[in-house]
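TICKET: design request
STATUS: open
ATTACHED STRUCTURE:
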């Protein structure tokens, strides 16, 4: 990362930045050489592998220069302007996904709430955008609550999770007037009773004993879980009894989130049926969690938002009747495919007969998912976005770990030092899980729309790395 790019981005934080190059701009390369030749191979004449891909943000395409274009912005030029790595989002795509959820509900239900699971993209601009789109929000810590409030979320639209909320977090939530505190343990029930001096609406988080096929780290609905109260072992029923007897806690409903990146719909129906065993007159709200899977690669074919909403609405109506309010809390399916990460290639190391490593200027500090879950991603040389991806390589990060591999087998169009390399579908849990490992400043978050790009979270600087020193 060039120091100058940090300074440039810092100098106009949060400003509206016109994209330096718009689609259709005349190309003027004085130093035409091998890279320019490769660029020409990537012209639209050879077809557009991006337009219509479910992995990239809606509206992405290969522009007349053969570059990847996102929301009307040329990604190669953006990388030059903003520096790399950078998280780039198509703002309209974020909004469209929120509307798809709302409209899918509006067609089927009169009493619903769609909550943005903000752990997937905790930045103020995202909270603000989803508030503008009429969503509610789920927060999983005092920090997320702070950001939601700062973004202007009505506290009555905020719902708080956490398997180990601190005294401070419980008090912060209650005093802010949030809608629901989602109770996760008997210790928390006692803690709330000790701390709260006025009634707080609560839901009880249930682990309904359903195990969807997804990575074990993101399965959360099975009995053996750190989250919530089990159904099979009777703890959920005991928790309900306990909270109904409480003066400070007003039990209004149930919650279950069975896991994430789920491609089947049946487990949701089973989970709702299981929750039904606990229903009573007090149950006016059923929060059926998030979990809808997304396409990280072209091979992934998740169900549509509409199909997902249909199963949940029908399930809740059948089991709990028509008068119960249904809540869902999607994270990944709102933001993952609306974002890409842009890197710069720094080295290409060929080990004859073994493999070629293409190293970029980020890695596990900006996208932990490949290392945490073995997640697979696609990659693209943004400079030659339509050129044949005929070189098999391994994309490595810049961190001091052999395991810092972003994509193990990627087919790229003759990657070279200086190229802008993009990994799509990194809009969820990338910025959220970013770290300063190896003293790397965290990347900016950039929202793109109609050919304009604005920095909504600036790049960290080296001074930020020492700012907390005392
Ligand atoms: N709700 C809860 C309680 C969660 O723990 C999560 C994710 O971890 C979500 C919602 C969002 O899930 P997803 O991003 O899979 O939609």
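STATUS: resolved
RESOLUTION: sequence designed for all positions
ATTACHED SEQUENCE:
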């Amino acid at each position: 990362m060039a120091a100058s790019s940090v300074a440039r981005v810092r100098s106009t934080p949060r400003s509206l930045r016109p994209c330096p190059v718009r689609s259709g701009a005349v190309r003027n390369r004085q130093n035409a050489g091998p890279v320019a030749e490769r660029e020409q191979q990537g012209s639209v004449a050879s077809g557009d592998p991006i337009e219509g891909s479910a992995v990239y943000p809606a509206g992405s395409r290969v522009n007349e220069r053969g570059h990847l274009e996102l929301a009307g912005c040329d990604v190669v030029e953006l990388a030059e302007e903003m520096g790399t790595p950078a998280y780039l989002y198509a703002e309209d795509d974020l909004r469209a996904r929120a509307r798809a959820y709302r409209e899918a509900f509006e067609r089927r239900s009169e009493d619903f709430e769609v909550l943005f699971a903000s752990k997937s993209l905790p930045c103020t601009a995202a909270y603000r955008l989803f508030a503008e789109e009429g969503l509610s929000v789920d927060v999983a810590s005092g920090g997320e609550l702070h950001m939601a409030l700062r973004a202007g979320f009505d506290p009555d639209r905020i719902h708080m999770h956490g398997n180990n909320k601190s005294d401070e977090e419980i008090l912060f939530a209650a005093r802010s007037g949030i809608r629901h505190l989602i109770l996760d343990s008997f210790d928390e029930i006692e803690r709330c009773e000790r701390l709260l001096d006025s009634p707080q609406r609560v839901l009880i988080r249930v682990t309904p004993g359903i195990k969807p096929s997804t990575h074990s780290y993101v399965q959360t609905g099975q009995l053996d879980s750190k989250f919530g109260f089990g159904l099979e072992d009777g703890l959920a029923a005991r928790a309900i009894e306990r909270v109904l007897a409480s003066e400070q806690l007003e039990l209004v409903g149930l919650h279950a989130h069975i896991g994430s990146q789920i491609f089947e719909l049946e487990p949701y129906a089973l989970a709702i049926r299981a929750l039904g065993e606990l229903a009573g007159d007090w149950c006016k709200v059923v929060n059926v969690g998030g979990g809808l899977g997304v396409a990280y690669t072209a091979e992934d074919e998740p169900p549509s938002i509409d199909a997902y909403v249909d199963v949940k609405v029908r399930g809740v109506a059948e089991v709990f009747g028509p008068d119960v309010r249904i809540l869902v809390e999607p994270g990944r399916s709102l933001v993952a495919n609306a974002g890409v990460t842009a890197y710069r290639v720094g080295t290409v190391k060929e080990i004859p007969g073994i493999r070629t490593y293409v190293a970029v200027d980020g890695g596990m500090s900006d996208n932990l998912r490949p290392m945490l879950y073995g997640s697979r991603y696609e990659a693209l040389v943004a400079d030659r976005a339509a050129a044949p991806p005929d070189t098999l390589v391994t994309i490595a990060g810049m961190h001091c770990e052999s395991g810092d591999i972003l994509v193990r087998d990627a087919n790229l169009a003759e990657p070279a030092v200086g190229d802008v390399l993009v990994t799509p579908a990194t809009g969820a849990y990338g910025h959220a899980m970013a770290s300063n490992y190896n003293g790397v400043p965290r990347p900016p978050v950039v929202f793109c729309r109609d050919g304009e790009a604005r920095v909504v979270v600036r790049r960290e600087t080296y001074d930020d790395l020492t700012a907390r020193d005392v």
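CLOSING REMARK: The longest strand covers residues 339-351. The chain has two domains: 3-91+337-466, 92-335.
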